[in-house]
Structures are given as structure tokens and as C-alpha cells.
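Revision sheet: C-alpha cells.
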Amino acid sequence: MIRTYARLSKDRPFIHLINVAVTVLIFVYCCYQLLANERITFSLGFIYVAFTVTLFSKAFAYRQKYLCRE
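Predicted:
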């Protein structure tokens, strides 16, 4: 999954940019809803954000190590 996303981010950087933007928007929305409504269910968005940030960082490391040799 990490290798696939690394290739996707290299071949189609616009899709990667959209994924990062959606992740940031979900984080901001969940932060606002958690502070405004004080409901713990909005903290589930943080799990999604943590998963995607981990995916982004590991894909970046893979991309730097294996895909940037041209």
C-alpha cells in the first residue's frame, strides 16, 4: 500500500495534493466540532488523520529512497 501510494504521488502529484487537502480539512472540521459540541465521536476523525499522515510519511520515505533515482 505504501509503495502504491508513493508511485501515485510521484506520477500524479495533483491527486496527492487533493488527498493532503482533504486530510487537513477533516482535521480542522473535527477539531472545530470537538471543541464546539464536546462530543467524543468527532475524535474518530483524528484516527483517520493519524492513519493518513503515517501513510504520507512512509510513502515519502519510500519515494525518496527508491523512486527518485533518475
